[in-house]
Fold this protein.
Amino acid sequence: MVRTLDVFLRDQKIGELQQDDAANLSFSYDVDYLTQESNQAISVSMPLSDANFGTAIAKPYFAGLLPDESARKRLAAALGISDTNAFGMLEIIGGECAGAMALHPQGADRHSPPSEDEILDSQQLAELLEELRGNPLLGGRQDVRLSLAGAQDKIAVKVVEGRVAIVKNGEPTTHILKPSIQGLEGTAQNETFCMSLAARLGIDAPAVQCARAGDTDYILVERFDRNPSGNSGVQRLHQEDFCQALSVPPELKYEEEGGPGIHHSLDLINRVVARPAADRLTFLRMQIFHYLVGNADAHAKNFALLYSLDTKAPSLSPIYDVVCTASYPELTKRMAMKIGGRNLPDTIKLQHWHQILPETKASQRLLSKELKNLATRIVDEAEILFKQADELGCQHAILKDIVKIIKTRSAMVIRCLS
């Protein structure tokens, strides 16, 4: 028996996702939607067409809307379904996905009466953070329909006058709330520091804040795929990560396991964005920054294309999910994307950086200039930010390790350049 979900982009139905008896997925656009002048493809991998996109393309995209790895398994257990059943999970929690996507059972009435946001006091927030440990995305709650990718426990919320609120019935949210990762000390403070440092260096990054409820530290990240100043309240902006755009299953997000690397990513940017030269340079700056702050987990699902409301061509999204993984000895030192064929930071020389770009003097001068600029500036900015940690609410012993790693990586880059 074929099962069907209606697929919406913002508030408009644009197509259908189907699953057959063999669990194969397929997606097709509605004919009426294809005739509209303002129509927009949901993915680079599924351009506007009357074609039926089979499971090789549809499954990586739609599975990419769900949590990864252990978080998916715990979510599936809370929902009472198999962790390989992407369709089944999206049927239950797909009402509020990353970007402007929403999925609902075929023909379901989406016009339920508006429900008030559930504003949490400090005790309720502490209980929510504790619940997230065993119930990712609050998957067991019938009135909460949320789906977010990634391996870390998280939930999409709305911030109302400085207070965290749970949103019901698939209404748009404004922030991502992430508790500190169990077993890794200070990840909330770590991410707050790294993301704030990126912004100080002129890299587009969403606003972040670190706080504590009960015994749990957490981080609130402003959603870059939401526009809170729209005439009708919070507007959804569509996005897709690089794995979705390239039809790569989320479980293959690391280059070493077959996922996209820097060259694949630069080629994607060059082919599809509105301003390829500017976004290529931004992507290279992001790569340098991930290296300098010791983030080995900058895989293809941690880069995304963002679609504005007034153009069909996307742009590179702001940087996100930046954590200094090098400050945790138990985590791998191998970088998610290789630099010149190398993924161990200590082995990367200037010639490996230069292999990222075409072998021309102009491109090599450009990359050397960006390396020098960021490696020179980042140490001073990190030290200033470290002194402001109390003001940011992210003071933690882990920050000393991060600053030390930044100084070491910066010195390595400057030695390479000289």
Residues 38 and 312 are 9 Å apart (CA to CA). The chain has three domains: 3-105, 118-222, 235-417. The mean pLDDT is 90.
